[in-house]
Amino acid sequence: MQPEVAVSSEFPSVIADDTSQPSAYQAALFHLRQGLQALCELSPGKDQEKKQAHEEVLVLQRQILQLLHLHFSPERETSEARSFGDVLRQHREEAGLTQAQLAAFSNLSISLVRKLEQGWNMPTRATLLALCSVADLKLVPSEVTTLPSMREDSHRLAPNCYLSPGFDAVSMMTELGQQINGSGGAIEQTYVYLDPKSALDWIQLANSPSYVAAFRESMPHTAIAKCIREVLGPSGLDLIALGPGDAKVEVKLVQYILDEIDRPSIRFYLLDASQPLLSRGFRHAVDTFNDDPRIFVCGIQGNFHHLPRYLQLHYTPARSHRRRVYMMLGDTIGNLDNEPQFFLNAFSGAAPGDLLIFDAGYVFSDSMDPADIHRCDPALSKPVPEGHQRWLGGPIQRYCQDAQNISFSYRLDVNRPLAGSYGLQFIAKVQLPGMTMKEFCMHQIRRYKPESLTRCMQSLGWEQVGLFPFNGSSTRPKGVFVFQKRTPKRSH
Fold first, then answer.
1. Closest by alpha carbon to 11, among 136, 119, 107, 150?
2. In the chain, which residues have pLDDT < 70?
3. What is the C-alpha to C-alpha distance for residues 479 and 278, in angstroms, rounded to an integer?
4. Do 376 and 236 fall into the same domain?
């Protein structure tokens, strides 16, 4: 079926208002477009030969227009006046498409097509790709992303998901299987989020009413956002969420930051080793911000222990007028084997002025006597919650070949590198054939003295600029720490 042609009255004249005579290019463009419109309106009837000839002539005419643009367009002289709407309208009309037809072919709404052509909306990455998928439109990203009207938002058209160099989830799953089928030991925390079922179990746990009330709804979002504004001022921000999981905590904090800062310019990176969790968190972030021009969302699959390897996140903030804000929320630091070594190595690329934000649970006892800790810490007087057992026991059930039964208990760890801190280890006892047993430390959380954390970070070149308690119950004392990287002192 021959497409219907409609010429919008909103299409600007090819003849400039300030000239009495069109240029040779403008005159040729005008007459070629008039001819193309006439050809489209010329009915070949039912004669198949005429239909074929008609199609061939239309194709030739459009090719002539393309050659005219390619070889004779004064684009270099007039590009500053060009807009995406102008380019889109030109290509649509030369393709012989109405706005309604373009909307149907690109799976976009006709109102969006109209707004794009009128300059009311800038195309998102998804919109641009949808338009480029219409072959007759002959629109390519390189033609529009260099336009002045697109340069400011060109970062939104960049790739928004990366697979970090050297990251190999398949090898990690192989290593997990080998360790699970070994004699026992400690499972590195990254491995308990890797496969889809583990990710699902963790998502269900993290979204249970008790967990949400204790950890997610009680976070001091407003205080953190105000602190960032006061410390960093109007700088552009690169918010880097390390191990965000489903990213609900991080996304909510970013929303507060957007509300707190005037004219924000934010790049929001989500870095996670678990592909299922990264997909869930990335989708939640994209859906939440819904093409907000103030923020660009990017997902990176990788291990935050290897943060210095990820060049996408490396730059010199002093030169770019931007600041990085590293976020480790959801008790992430409490999963680390050696906190000082992690902070020293993982943030070796941090520049003076960058911020580091993390939350941490506090000790229930100042004593390092195990008996006192058992008496004071309420978690140690209760069994391991069923949600944690289901999540942490899943990898053993799926990958341990001879496991017959799994039971969980807590084990107290007072041999921690930070003074005054202790850990709760989630110990899985696995029963094997012949009544033999083996044990795995599947997970661990830490309790800290705030002053000990502060001293540790100061020794590593980070100055505390904020400490905000969680809202709510005193039975779960927690706080959010905000540190800023100091400028190194010059040696004389």
1. 119
2. 1-23, 25-26, 29-30, 34, 37, 65-82, 125, 140-159, 311-312, 314-320, 473-475, 489-492
3. 25
4. yes
Tally of structural domains, the chain: 2
In a domain, residue 7? The reply is no
Mean pLDDT of the chain: 83
With respect to residue 116, please indicate whether it lies within any of the assigned structural domains: yes
Phi and psi, residue 313, nearest 5°: -105, 10
What is the spatial distance between Cα 82 and Cα 80, in angstroms, rounded to a whole number? 6
Are 180 and 248 members of one domain?
yes
Domain range for 448: 159-492
Per-residue pLDDT reduced to its tens digit, 49-83: 888 888 878 777 777 766 666 566 654 433 434 57
Q: Are strands 185-186 and 161-163 parallel, antiparallel or unpaired?
A: unpaired
461, containing H or E segment: none
Q: Rounded to whole angstroms, what are the CA distances from 135 to 97, 105, 112, 130?
A: 12, 10, 19, 10
139 alpha-carbon distance from chain centroid: 28
Q: Is the separation of the CB atoms in 194 and 225 below 8 Å?
A: no
Decide if 13 is inside a domain: no
